[in-house]
Amino acid sequence: MARHIYVHNPFCARKCPYCDFYSVTDTSCTEEFYKAAIREAELLGSITGENTGTNPLTDIDNRDTVYFGGGTPSLPDSKLITELLRAIKKAFSIASDAEITIEVNPSSVTTEKLTEYREAGFNRISLGVQSLDDEVLKTLGRLHDAKGALDAIEKIKKAGFTNISADLITGVPGETLDGIKKDIKTFRELGIKHISTYSLMLEEGTAFYDRYNKTIEELISPDVEREMYHGTRAFLNELGYETYEISNSAMSGFKSIHNSSYWNSCEYFAIGAGAHGFLGDLRYGHRDDVRAYIEEMNTITADDYKAFLEGNKSDLKSLYIEETLTKEDKMREVAFLRLRTTEGILLDEFKKVFGVEFEDVFADAVNSNIEKGLLERKQRTLRLTRSGLDIANIVIEDFL
């Protein structure tokens, strides 16, 4: 069974005004953090050994994956990143054909870093472009301009990476569908294999929430935002990208295996302050506190960590249990996760895993959403319709 490991780098040069992921701009303890992360990897490897299975609900590519996200993983010294990756590969005996991804920003990635990433075993790059329009980038508070993003793509390609993903944010005040299509066309011409298109969300606690919460619909109406979403999706498909999840599209053979593991209810380990994991019946996390993380990883014993992962210890400074899942919880999560995908709910796989029919468990939610035209049956699958995609969160709520 494949292992999936998420590493959270909490450091950023500057906090983006729309971002609600955990990050800090104080980098004074970066080296301490990475030493602590190496110790956590070693502890996890010694505790779990080969008992690191998954519970896939479809025949996804079942290779091992490691994903460095953030934050800005390309901000720290590349030596810290590569030393941690090597420790992870050793502790977990990661297979040679694993998908190993690192998120990078145009403003902090260099040729030297990319070369070291490649030599250490990274084989997939996720580039935080967000837009190739300088005015949109200014609105988003990014540290790079369009030229910097294009230069970064060329550096990534010259370093030998062929599996490259680029992020775009849609629905930004001042943005147009034609502008988004222009960016996608440029990515296609540059050989970008995977494109993530995220609709701008106003998250409480962010600068954007304070700035736009009362005026966003005046700047970009919901109808225009939805037109952007469907227009973007259609254009991606026209250029040869398959949209396989609400926000993700890829050329054939380049879907993100790591992200697909989330949507297929696979287990995954978490390393780093702000990281969240899923093992057995346990969803767990690390508190958004770098200092607490460093202190705990330097003092926690293997026995205490093992007891925590077994649900028997909760008096820890950094690690905490989010929830212990029942069979019913896991069935609801299938709806929550799989309805995000283009395939939708795979009814045969659901019955194989849980021993019951999905449509028996969720009869009311299924029937009402089919009647409303928000859900459709396709042979032995259930998936969102075009109208369902527009209010996906509302449809999914019916199953929770």
- Biggest sheet character: 9 strands, mixed
CATH fold category name of the largest domain: TIM Barrel
Low-confidence stretches: none
Radius of gyration: 21 Å
The proportion of residues forming helix, as a percent range, comes to 40-55%
Number of helices: 18
Fold blueprint:
Elements: E1 4-9, H1 30-48, E2 65-70, H2 78-92, E3 99-104, H3 111-120, E4 124-130, H4 134-140, H5 146-158, E5 164-170, H6 177-189, E6 194-199, H7 207-212, H8 216-219, H9 222-238, E7 242-245, E8 248-250, H10 257-263, E9 269-271, E10 276-279, E11 282-286, H11 290-299, H12 302-309, E12 319-324, H13 327-338, E13 345-346, H14 347-354, H15 358-361, H16 363-371, E14 375-378, E15 381-384, H17 386-390, H18 392-397
Parallel strand pairs: 1-2, 1-9, 2-3, 3-4, 4-5, 5-6
Antiparallel strand pairs: 6-8, 7-8, 10-11, 11-12, 13-15, 14-15
Label this structure with key terms.
3-stranded antiparallel sheet; TIM Barrel; 18 helices; 15 strands; Arc Repressor Mutant, subunit A; globular; alpha/beta; about 400 residues; single chain; 9-stranded mixed sheet
Summary of the model, kept short:
The protein is 43% helix and 18% strand. The chain contains 18 helices and 15 strands.
Please give a structural write-up.
It is a single chain. By secondary structure, the chain is α/β, with parallel strands linked by helices. The protein contains 18 helices and 15 strands. The longest helix is centred in the N-terminal third of the chain and has 19 residues, at 30-48. The protein folds into two domains: 4-263, Aldolase class I (TIM Barrel, Alpha-Beta Barrel); 327-397, Arc Repressor Mutant, subunit A, CATH 1.10.10.
